[in-house]
Amino acid sequence: MTKKFAYRKNILFLLILFLTACFSFAETHTVEKGETYYSISRKYGISVDQLCAMNNLTVNDVLKVGQKLSIPEKNVEKSSLPSVSTSKSLSNAERKFDTYTVQKGDTFYRIAKVNGISVEELKALNNFDSDTVLKAGQRLKIPVTIVDTSASLPSLPSSDPRKYSEKKGDSSLTWPVKNPTVTYMKGKVSGVQLSAQKNESVTAIRAGTVMYVGNYRGYGQVVFVQAKTGHIYVYSGLGSIKVRKGDYVVFGDSLGTAGTDSIKGTTQICLMVFQKSNPIDPAKAPRG
Fold first, then answer.
1. What is the pLDDT of residue 285?
2. Which of 69, 218, 257, 260 has the least CB density, counted as fewest CB within 10 Å?
3. Which domains are delineated in the chain?
């Protein structure tokens, strides 16, 4: 009888340990009207990334009133959580905010929606009042986002990018180099070739996280930058690179310098932009 009791006691003890492990993330939040990922994460002292990872969501997923969200405990080690990023640089870990540069035509509503917060939260984050007017070139604080730099990169065709069409682009738009002649590439490569000055600085036209740097399949020195919206900007044909994988760059940051075409001897770079692995017209890609 004593042995049987001891056996049951041990089973009960193991069951308690199992339930404790299973419910270390037991706290649940019910979404209320007007709440955002940012406001909920602040309420529980966690990051938006942790909240999204715990619930297998992204900031682009719409929260619904009455939706149940699992809340990780603040004292739980990050290594035990589902990870949004398997490769984070020290600078990313220390970042508290990202920076967005306002573009012509931007509104508080659009910027807030892209970043998963309300207009009120965006204004509070930047100490704005109800009379504040956005100005092109203005820099705003936005919630930090960590991008998985180990994720798959867009597949670039192996064809020679030095094949051009007769189509010319609008040089008055914001480009990685100043006042370029914009020539569209044809064939399997979808992007633009931009003329540049010798050793001219190549700058980011969209804030984001550097996913790859180095030589890439005959495209010369290349930098891949993923924006918060998911767009991936590919700057190829660089003469030198100044950033590292995992760095966060803001609009206007220098990525490197323009390179020289080995055949024509002219200074130029190429720009390609991808959305959900599909190439899009770089002229229509978001800036800022």
1. 92
2. 218
3. 2-80 (3.10.350.10), 90-143 (3.10.350.10), 164-284 (2.70.70.10)
How far, in Å, CA of 91 to CA of 80, rounded?
A: 21
What sign has the CA pseudo-torsion 181, 185, 190, 193? negative
Q: How far apart are CA 86 and CA 135, in angstroms?
A: 36
Adjacent-strand bridge partners of 235: 223, 271
pLDDT computed for residue 150 by the predictor: 61
Q: Closest by alpha carbon to 286, among 94, 153, 110?
A: 110
Q: How many CB atoms lie within 10 A of CB 161?
A: 22
Closest among 21, 75, 67, 88 to 44, alpha carbons compared: 75
Q: Which residues contact 58 (CB under 8 A, 6 or more apart)?
A: 52
DSSP string, 87-150: ---HHHHH--EEEEE--TT--HHHHHHHTT--HHHHHHHTT--TT----TT-EEEEE-----TT
Exposed / middle / buried, residue 121 (Cβ in 10 Å: 0-12, 13-18, 19+): middle
Q: Could you tell me which residues are beta bridge partners of residue 194? A: 182, 269
Give this prediction's pTM: 0.58
**Amino acid (1-letter code) at residue 91:** S
Determine how β-strand 68-70 pairs with β-strand 267-275: unpaired
